[in-house]
Amino acid sequence: MAVSGKTKVFGVIGDPVEHSLSPVIQNAALAASKLDCTFLAFKVKSTAVGKAMDGMRAFGIQGLNVTMPHKTAVLNFLDEVHQTARALKAVNTVKNESDKLLGFNTDGTGAMSALRENGVEPKGKKVMLLGAGGAARAIAFVLADQVDELSILNRTIQPAAELADLIKERFNSKVVAYALSPLTLKANLADADLLINATSIGMKSNANKTLIVPKWLKPDLAVMDIVYDPIETKLAKNARAAGAKVVSGVEMLIYQGAASFEIWTGRKAPIEVMRKAALNHLQKVQKS
Ligand code: NAP
Predict the structure, then answer these.
(1) What's the CATH number for 8-105+252-287?
(2) Phi-psi domain of 286 (left: phi exceeds 0; alpha: psi -120 through 50; beta: other)
(3) CA 235 to CA 201: how far, in whole Å?
(4) Which pLDDT belongs to residue 161?
(5) Which entry of 43, 45, 51, 71 is annotated as an active-site residue?
(6) If I label 194, which of 21, 135, 175, 218 is the partner at 20 to 30 A Cα–Cα?
(7) Average of pLDDT values for 222-228?
């Protein structure tokens, strides 16, 4: 749709922001939904997050995704923050409702939808989560009141222990934190139903790495690697070869974006269009 004086603006703020996939998937979704809207990337310095929120009101920007490193800082400049985002101290979606800025976090619900829409039901399962960074925290929070047991394994024990405590304060869940080691990885995986990698291991910069020894993987395991570039990580390849059910990080990317789209527009997100746009873009980037 051609941009006109009536076109509404959405966007993503971050620093760096040039490689964000949000413009790719959100513009595809807006166009497919025939909405007279556009989605842009704004590079915002850490010192200018408050000014960016003032600008959002001043320019009437309808919605923003918030990416690193502003997910926590942005909380100080919002009028209302959804309880999950407040507990996580991380906002990835801002909605402008008549100059009132509302903050949400869609990473956890995105991960949950990615699992369920791909035939993996975490309810009542033993789940092993690798990582205790921003994405892992959001996932743990949403999984916590659904699963039977949650083990959180992290290279540095402190954030994993803090996350486990935060969850135990809020939910009546069985959550245990471990320092990540070959011993704790192997022991926890032995009786896990679902393994989620939410560390950055497996990303393009260290694409040949995985924390999981292939022979530990088994056909009755489901594996979600939230790393989406490369599209199929080494862990995902090994899991597929072992006969495990695999959910790609691209799925979480799409469903967290879909949740933002639905918050902003009130419309059902066109998932297939968003998936196609993300995969086309990632395939092009990987070839270059
Ligand atoms: P983050 O907050 O920086 O957390 C990074 C995590 O990786 C921490 O738990 C860190 O452990 C761990 N880690 C880093 N290097 C490690 C190593 N050499 N060995 C073991 N653990 C290591 O990052 P994030 O925002 O949570 O993102 C994590 C990954 O998820 C990134 O690859 C990101 O692209 C991806 N992601 C995907 C989606 C999606 O929609 N699919 C959404 C968000 C993020 P320490 O605490 O010990 O440092």
Answers:
(1) 3.40.50.10860
(2) alpha
(3) 9
(4) 97
(5) 71
(6) 21
(7) 96
CATH of domain 108-247: 3.40.50.720
- For atom 8 of ligand 1, the residue with the nearest CA is 133
Answer yes or no: is the C-beta of 198 below 6 A from any ligand 1 atom.
yes
Cα 111 from Cα 251, distance rounded (Å): 8
Domain edges within the chain:
8-105+252-287, 108-247
Ligand 1, residues 117, 199, 248: which to mutate, most atoms within 8 A of Cβ? 199
| Residue range 167-198, pLDDT digits in tens | 999 888 899 999 999 999 999 999 999 999 99
Return d(Cα 79, Cα 101) in angstroms, integer.
5
Taking CA atoms, 19 is separated from 12, 125, 281, in Å, by 11, 35, 11
Which residue's alpha carbon is at the smallest distance from atom 46 of ligand 1? 156
Which amino acid, residue 56? M
Query: Whose alpha carbon is nearest atom 11 of ligand 1?
Result: 155
268: three-class secondary structure by DSSP = coil
